[in-house]
Amino acid sequence: MSVFPKPPPGRELHAPNRFEMLLEDVEVEGDVPVELNGTFYQVGPDRKYPPRVPDPVPFSDDGVVQAFRFDRGRVDFSRRYVQTPRIKREREAGEALYGGYRLPHTDHPSVADTNRGVANTNVLVHNGRLLALKEDSPPIAMDPVTLDTLGEWDFGGSLSGPGFTAHPKKDPETGQMIAFGFGAKGFMTKDVVYYEISPEGKITHEVWFTAPYYSEMHDFGVTRDYVVFPIFPLIGDPEQVKAGKQHFGWDRSEQVYLGVLPRGGSAEDLRWFKAPNQFASHVMNAFNVGPLVSIDLPVAADGVFPWFPPYDGSGIDPVAARGRLTRWTVDMSKKDEDFAEVKILSDYPGAEFPRTDDRLQMSEYRHGWMLSLDGPVRNEFAHVDLHKGTTTTWAADDPRTILQEPCFVPLSGNSAEAEGFLLQTATVSDGRSEVLIFDARTIGDGPLARLTLPLRLKPLYHTSWSDAEEIARPSADPLGGPAATETATDAGPKG
Question: Where are the beta strands (DSSP E) in 187-238?
Fold first, then answer.
């Protein structure tokens, strides 16, 4: 095996870890709220082998899942690689076999036409399975307790397209999952497939449509009555790829589209709205009041990803790439193609990784949390109160601390919106990582408790929380797919 390249200056804490582990009884400073009874999951990229290509896009690194299991004030920690078909092939070879991000022509010939998915972007529990997600491939099912990989999950053979969004939405009222896949008919096609999935994991409704252009459709919004597809011009061009460019490139000349589809509707019901060139990656929430459909997301004036610059060779403007939480509203009762309203919800600079109280997803809401990516520092995050119009922040004392996506946990199933806790992972130094626990409404007062791990955990991407009862699995899988083996009583630390 060759040697890993040294990370560039300022990126030392992002170096690969490459290990799996179990740590019982994590060190605690302060008191862990006894109401926390479940598992805090996190997923992200951690390359197992040195890359085949120089300066690889981080999105192509192998997926690793971390789990913090809370039970009566005690916490256990585990970390496992997602055993994708890709990583299995590379472990057999003892080296990287796959090349650049979505660039199969850079792979070793021995893995031609194999699944390149890395399952490194998002993670959540649905019908007793922990699903590790990446847009270019089917979900990978894992045991939510042991983190053992169960295998690729195609919803009982009903998954039509080759990929599945990294950001499916779970309806808090019905348990239904809403999802989609882009590039759904092959390499860089404009085809999109939309899915409605039952709480039991069966695809019950499917719609195929064509997007205005092929792009990186990373996230979307769902309301009680509609599905909202933001199309931003982070485009893919086969000719540019043949010329040696990345799979995606930022196009400043193309406009933005917003597709709105009624839930349960058909492709003929889909409407497109237009807006000037701009960029966003993640969605805070979406809701509708009758025909007025709103989607809230951090919007920037330029592309955000420096590894996907414009194909013309120009760079990304870091100032213009600072997003601000923005609400776009369209009116489905009118024939206009323009947005009905654009409203800045917060001037918090560099807003990204937006989260809400998930019990208010698809409905009007008041509270949200997000990181600041204002420049290279990620040591601050914010709470926004949309009713008061206020933004409250908390920052780590050490500016080198790297905070990751926040995750809200309600005090109970019946507690008020934002009444609960905010979990925040922090990579602090070469020798320490933490999970910070805040009162979600008063983050400015500082953490209630800190969980400390005596090692560096490289920053990961998205997070989710599952209560202990949600981790209960059916004894038999009605769809005939891989099923977890542990019982729900094993979900907490061994005591």
Answer: 191-197, 203-210, 221-222, 226-231, 234-235
